[in-house]
Amino acid sequence: SRKVDSRTIYVGHRPCPTTEALIPPKFCDNRIVSSKYTVWNFLPKNLFEQFRRIANFYFLIIFLVQVIVDTPTSPVTSGLPLFFVITVTAIKQGYEDWLRHKADNEVNKYLVTVLEDGRRARKESEKIKVGDVVEVVEDETFPCDLILLQSSREDETCFVTTASLDGESNHKTHYTVPDTEKNLESLSATIECEQPQPDLYKFVTVFSRCVVFFRSLGPENLLLKGATLKNTQKIYGVAVYSGMETKMALNYQGKSQKRSAVEKSINAFLLVYLCILVSKALVCTTLKYVWQSRPGQDEPWYNQKTQKEKDTNLYLKMFTDFLSFMVLFNFIIPVSMYVTVEMQKFLGSFFISWDKDFFDPEIQEGALVNTSDLNEELGQVEYVFTDKTGTLTQNNMEFIECCIDGFQYKYADSGTELDGFCVTDGPVSMLQQKAGREKEELFLRALCLCHTVQVKEATGQGDGVGDGMIHPADLRGFIASSPDEVALVKGAMKYGFKFLGMESKNMRVMNRNNDVETYELLHVLNFDPVRRRMSVIVRTKSGDTMLFCKGADSSIFPRVRQEEVDRIRMHVERNATEGYRTLCVAYKLLSSEEYDQADTGLREAKLALQDREEKLMAVYNQVETGMSLIGATAVEDRLQEEAAETMEALQGAGMKVWVLTGDKMETAKSTCYACRLFQRSTELLELTVRTLHSWAKSKPVSAFSVPPRSWSSANQDYGFIIDGATLSLVLNSSPDSNSSCYKSLFLQICQNCTTVLCCRMAPLQKAQIVKMVKNSKGSPITLSIGDGANDVSMILEAHVGIGIKGREGRQAVRNSDYAIPKLKHLKKLLLGHGHLYYVRIAHLVQYFFYKNLCFILPQFLYQFFCGYSQQPLYDAAYLTMYNICFTSMPILANSLLEQHICMEVLMDNAALYRDVAKNAMLRWGPFLYWTLLGVYQGLLFFFGVRFLFSNPALQDNGQVFGNWSYGTIVFTVLVFTVTLKLAMDTRHWTWINHFVIWGSLAFYMFFSFFWGGIICNQKRVKQIKIYILSLRFVT
Q1: Where is each P-type ATPase A domain found (predicted)?
Q2: What class, spelled out in words, does domain 6-17+128-251 have in CATH?
Q3: Is 766 one of the annotated binding-site residues?
Q4: Which of 151, 242, 566, 618 has the largest CB neighbor count within 10 A?
Q5: Residues in CB range of 634: below 8 A, 6 or more apart
């Protein structure tokens, strides 16, 4: 029977003749589903999610109380606003899900070519089944995960780009299944592979052809859904994973819901106002029964109780009255504020997308907003975590120089130096000496052979070799999985050694004498981030077997002789200090016994279905020992445009910048100096494994026990540097007292430094660092910015994640909250847009609580003058439309368009960002100010109008004005006051502000006349008099 942890697939659904009665295995179809709702479950699922919000659930309870209990106001007064909020939110979420459905359909309905019964058939992508043989042509995207069976290229390879998967935009080479027959229509084969799992770089399977032969396959044979075929006319592959079981679908990580600090403040303020509401209801309920306890007040002669009222339980009646007062005063909780905030965030996000300053002509794209819920967080950032390569730098590699056998070589355009070499430095006694010609050529052959670069014949386009190469006529483009590899191959071309490409399994190299050398490629020991090196095993025409290896100095130095290291270490460190990326190159001549042992080990490891990666790693480590160090290379990765100015502005705004990189310490340190994160006056503190152990032997606390006040010296800035190995000791420390002390001391030091540099970082460590700072005391707002797949973890972990549309694909962009084309755009995004968004939404929240307190306080005061009878002061129509129509549009327009300081000033004065930092406008001080203002104006509205009525004017028919007239005057003064208050606070006027402010007042006056005419036609004259009185009071 088949193992649970593997699956058997029959190519073309044709079992081998020897197979017993076939029970077709069941696999999922090829449909991709990223949507959240369907037509059938949208209503119940969306309503359930919306009523999980406390405010919505609260208003639902109030609405049900109004329906069930005899309350003073109609259920419409709370039901209509709630219905409006729920409907608007449902429409927004429904629209977003419809877009997801639309995107899914574009993928699922895409027509693909499938081989069925010997003929090519076109069918929709969603109808592909596991086992189908699929045809894909150049520039098409693979519809599912395929094992490559056949390629149109002579060398049985194909090239793909996986930018949409892992962020790498460079071309990768994939290989067909060896010894597969050309006629796929008659191919009978089975594939035994592991069950679906999300690791993009791991794939273990065995391909068998009716027990005739077995072939082990790996990631190099698997074409992933979402990748694109390049430089290959067409390929045929068999579907092994489909639909939601593809690696792309399994890697889709729904983003955790990020909540902004403003939303947390709203909830805190809401709790205060809920307490005020309950207090008001309790006070009125208590005073009602105190007042009714007086003789004659409970049952006056003109309002006798019915028998049912007399039989009602007193406590039940008190509870019912309490609920009635809660309903009467519930408008103090602004339910419409939530929908206004949602609309403000959604509409406000378009201003980022529309900003022309974010448009990059190079990629013809602007900024992208993936999450509109965090606009205001852009104005609250305290910590910025940035990647180095591709973020601070351009990820555009250029070969600068090399070191061979301890001698430094730098390419010179002038032909004065023999063989194109120019000695620029080296040991003083050997200034004009060079390494032997044999060593030079060995080094250049290593550069030409130790890589996975493929040659693309001349197209005259961007992949061509740059200026300054030896034979400009021989234009060639290179396809590689890493820009470093292309830079090294181009560097070798400058010095006379040209890689001509692969023919079958032979690598062809043209040497300085223009002779073509051929090497048989036996094995490629692929690069991985744990080993930090890659190797190739080749056989020369003379029959010698050689291993060439290149990798990081920390990975190569322990595997070569120490005297060789001493000759080259100085050059490597100097190049790293200058900001160059360095790689060391080594070689090893393998005896026939050593090669046979390595070959056997590699083949056995590749055939293993279980623990294949570990077994391969063991063989790699065994063969990559006892090597000879030849030299090292230096490649430059230039700074991004305006990187230094941007970092300087962020620090001027009070943000602390942390650089998290996988590069070595010296290279990253140099980049930090170039970006002005480290100044020459900055005192650098370095923490390594060696120093950590030496401190641990003494007193770990005393090593760091610097009084906190000494860090805040105005004359001294500190920078902190730590490497990945030390970071592992700090973050993954054991629970004993000394080890746990490291973490708190580490955090204390970091928080007192203006810049922190973390080198040799794994992607998981980046996320750990962000999480540690995010959860530290004070819960500072964090922002992560990166451009590659290795930055996704920290982008998802931070409060705000920024993706750069760089050279390493779009996975960081897809997982980010905001995406920008260049690093320089971060300055305006934070200092400009972020600052304004925060100020706008802070004012919106405070204003909403203020205007609702002004609205409901007169209603509360009115109970003292109506015997606590729960009589509403305002008409039901005014209660319903106050927040929906009369006062909603002016504050929405203000929260979208207001600029208390113009954008140019904000950009020029980074220190202004500090004024709104740490949620300054939504603290308890400003909240208390707005609350007291609401109380003051509410008292003024009620008692001012009461004073106006102290000498009641009679109508023409001799009647006095009644309670509805009184309430209408209070309401009119209220609407005009809160609207004019907003107009006075507006500093940036547009025609939209004028239209909504004066239009809202005009609409209220029109509606009030209209509504008065419907209720009672005879009241029109009375309304005019009320408005005259109202206007007198306002003025």
Answers
A1: 111-191
A2: mainly beta
A3: yes
A4: 242
A5: 399, 400, 401, 402, 403, 575, 578, 580, 581, 582
